[in-house]
Design brief:
A 3-stranded antiparallel sheet has the order 1-2-3, with helices on one face. The protein has helices spanning about 5-20, 65-80, 85-100, 125-145; strands at about 30-40, 45-50, 55-65. It has a single domain (about 5-145), classed as Sufe protein. Chain: A (Alpha-Beta Complex), CATH 3.90.1010.10. The relative contact order is 0.20. The protein is of the alpha+beta class and about 140 residues long. The longest helix is centred in the last third of the chain and has 21 residues, at about 125-145.
Length: about 140
């Protein structure tokens, strides 16, 4: 597949998650809730995690922002559901490395649609948009432990 076709495919994946977000909404009950925002562009997210015995049983987000931040939140919640906390944090580390343009080894973890966000690393001003949900997840998990 040529670079242009791959770039187009990645754009389509991002827009699909933006227009049809997965796991958008609010959970009721005893859940871990983290609110974060990106003051430079106005993106804001409320991330909710239901963690039982070290496993992310459910994840939802609410908020508003650009297509990159909302798509990333959709992809992240989809990817971490059913994962243990350590794997979710490994995914977050891999994602951060990918945003910095570093080569990453995804042999242990399938990043699924998340790889569509690789191109964001070429736009430093957008990296904070892409990492907002991930930073919220890290903050929540670290506060919980």
């Amino acid at each position: 597949m040529s670079f242009n076709n791959l770039d187009t495919l990645y754009r389509q994946v991002i827009m699909d998650h933006y227009k049809n977000p997965r796991n958008k909404g609010v959970m009721e009950g005893d859940v871990l809730t983290v609110d974060m925002n990106n003051p430079t562009c106005g993106d804001r997210i409320q991330l909710q995690l239901q963690v039982e015995e070290g496993v992310v049983k459910d994840a939802k987000f609410d908020g508003e922002g650009c297509s990159i931040s909302m798509s990333s939140a959709s992809m992240m919640t989809q990817a971490i559901k059913g994962k243990n906390i350590d794997d979710a944090l490994k995914m977050s580390k891999l994602f951060s490395q990918m945003m910095l343009g570093e080569d990453i080894d995804t042999a242990d973890l399938d990043l699924e649609d998340i790889e569509a966000l690789q191109g964001v690393s070429k736009f430093p001003a957008r990296i904070k948009c892409a990492t907002l949900a991930w930073k919220a997840m890290e903050k929540g998990v670290n506060e919980e432990q």
